[in-house]
Write a structure and sequence with these properties.
Elements lengths: L2 H10 L2 E7 L7 E5 L9 E6 L3 E6 L9 H4 L1 E3 L2 E3 L6 E3 L5 E3 L8 E2 L1 E4 L2 E6 L1
Bound molecules: FE2/S2 (inorganic) cluster.
Length: 120
């Protein structure tokens, strides 16, 4: 298999999935989204500083609170309101206890005001 074959094979295994419209999410706020017809958990969409969008799995890794529905967003940090754990939405890494496991984050593409994530 050549390097070009590997790139094609790798690219063919990923695809874009529409999540919502940018305007569905208020600025400096979050939104819980369930994408119908996809084998994905619920998602949390974050809108930071205008049209800067991030997407992660919705549930906090500490106790399954909804980050998209109940989280408090400040800059690039989402605070889980159940026990005050925090994550960096750019990387998914926990930044405040009791959270120690990262949340899964997705590559985001915005096309004509629509938010897409890349999934495998
Ligand atoms: S459920 Fe999120 S910090 Fe406990």
């Amino acid at each position: 298999m050549t390097d070009d074959d590997m790139k094609t094979t790798s690219a063919a295994k990923t695809r874009l999935v529409r999540v919502c419209a940018v305007e569905d999410v208020d600025e400096e706020d979050t939104l819980q989204v369930e994408v119908e017809g996809e084998d994905l958990s619920a998602l949390a969409v974050y809108r930071v500083q205008g049209d800067e969008i991030y997407v992660s799995d919705d549930f906090c890794t500490h106790g399954k609170a909804s980050l998209g529905d109940e989280g408090y967003l400040e800059g690039h940090i989402i605070e889980c309101t159940w026990h005050d754990g925090k994550f960096d939405i750019r990387t998914g890494e926990p930044v405040a206890l009791p959270c120690t496991e990262p949340i899964k984050v997705y590559p985001v593409t915005v096309i004509d005001g629509e938010v897409y994530i890349t999934v495998k």
